[in-house]
Structures are given as C-alpha cells and as structure tokens.
C-alpha cells in the first residue's frame, strides 16, 4: 500500500467529470487500498478518486468517527464504485464541512438530510441503501467530487470571498500541510 499525494483546490482534475469504472482488476483493488491509506493518513473520513488524480467514479469513506449519529449503524470502511444518487429527501441541514483538497478551509454547507444511493462495492456487487445524518453528508460531499464539484460551490459568493486569501495560498502551493499534496504546476 502507498500514501498518495492529494490534489488541491484549483487543480483542473477536481473540476472535471469522472468516468465509470468498467471492470474489477488487481489495479483497482490496489488503488482502493491506497485510497484508504491516503485517507486515514490525512485523518479524513472520505476520499474521492479525482483527489488522487484519477478520473474515476469511485470514492472511499469511513464515516464512523461521528458516533453521536445514533440513527445510523456503524458502517465501517466503505467503497462506492459507480455510485448513483437515487433520491434525496428530508430537510436541508447546515453543517460545517472541510475537504482534504482544501486544507484548513471549513464552512457550513446545507444539504438534504437523506440520500438514497446505488453503487457497486469493492467485490463489484450491486448495493442500494438510504443514509441519514453525518454519513449522508459525507456521501453527498464525495459524490459531488465525482461531478467536478467542491463544497465551496455550495457557498454564497460572500462566503467564498471570506476564504479568498487562504484559497490563493493553497493555489500557490504555499500552505503547510501535514499530509502529502500534489505540487502545483507553474
Ligand atoms: Zn472533499
């Protein structure tokens, strides 16, 4: 296994749409292992393939740290291959989010409380399930990455402007970070 460097804010790959994973392979399984190691090393709860430079519909997550979310069973590490949102529902709930690709920037994002997702697990078996609370939020955040969308895109222009200085520091590759980042091309 290997810790992969994470792509940061303003890298074009984070703005592109991803392609579906065509088949299971040793390379795919290795990539999934590397993504988990990369995520845990950065103390993250989710990591999407574009964040390590792969244009694939794939994300990994381990959203259990917020255990006060009593309505959701402990899920443990999960792999979502070719995920599709079947439906969202419930109230819009605001909660502070961050992103491993946008270190040290956090803000409140409003998202639907529930999400029903269809996906393939790492054995390539079809799964469908409804999620709520914190897990639902992590899924929606990671799913956004596969559509070339960042949590910043949910913020008002005013809120985004408040982060401008830090974002330009990240963009310039000048932000110190305790996990490896992809160096910015100049
Ligand atoms: Zn993210």
List the helices and strands and how they pair.
Layout lengths: L25 H16 L4 E3 L9 E4 L16 E20 L9 E14 L5 E7 H14 L10 H6 L1 H8 L15
Antiparallel strand pairs: 1-2, 2-3, 3-4, 4-5
- Spatial shape: globular
* CATH homologous superfamily label: Peptide deformylase
Distinct ligand kinds? zinc ion
Low-confidence stretches: none
> Helical content, roughly?
10-25%
Widest sheet: strand order? 1-2-3-4-5
Give the tally of structural domains: 1
At the first level of CATH, what is the class?
Alpha Beta
Count of DSSP strands = 5
User: Using only CA atoms, what is the Rg?
Assistant: 16 Å
Task: Report on the architecture of this protein.
The protein is of the alpha+beta class and 186 residues long. The protein has a single domain, classed as Alpha-Beta Complex (Peptide Deformylase). Helix content is 24%, strand content 26%. It has four helices and five strands. Strands 1-2-3-4-5 form a five-stranded antiparallel beta sheet, sandwiched between helices. The two termini are 30 Å apart. Zinc ion binds next to helix 2. The site of zinc ion (ZN) has 5 residues, from helix 2.
Using brief descriptors, characterize the structure shown.
186 residues, alpha+beta, Peptide Deformylase, five-stranded antiparallel sheet, 4 helices, globular, binds zinc ion
Short description:
With 186 residues, the protein is α+β, with helices and mostly antiparallel strands.
């Amino acid at each position: 296994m290997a810790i992969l460097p994470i792509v940061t804010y303003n890298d074009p790959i984070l703005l592109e749409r991803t392609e579906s994973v065509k088949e299971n392979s040793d390379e795919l399984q290795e990539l999934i292992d590397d993504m988990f190691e990369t995520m845990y090393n950065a103390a993250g709860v989710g990591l999407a393939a574009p964040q390590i430079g792969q244009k694939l519909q794939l994300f990994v997550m381990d959203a259990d740290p917020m255990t006060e979310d009593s309505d959701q069973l402990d899920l443990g590490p999960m792999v979502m291959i070719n995920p599709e949102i079947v439906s969202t529902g419930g109230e819009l709930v605001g909660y502070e989010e961050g992103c491993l690709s946008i270190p040290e920037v956090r803000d409140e994002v409003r998202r639907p409380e529930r999400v029903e997702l269809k996906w393939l697990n790492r054995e390539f078996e079809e799964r469908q399930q409804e999620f709520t609370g914190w897990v639902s939020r992590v899924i929606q955040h990671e799913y956004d990455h596969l559509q070339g969308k960042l949590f910043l895109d949910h913020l008002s222009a005013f809120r985004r402007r408040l982060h401008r200085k830090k974002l330009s520091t990240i963009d310039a590759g000048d932000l110190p970070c305790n996990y490896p980042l992809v160096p910015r091309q100049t």
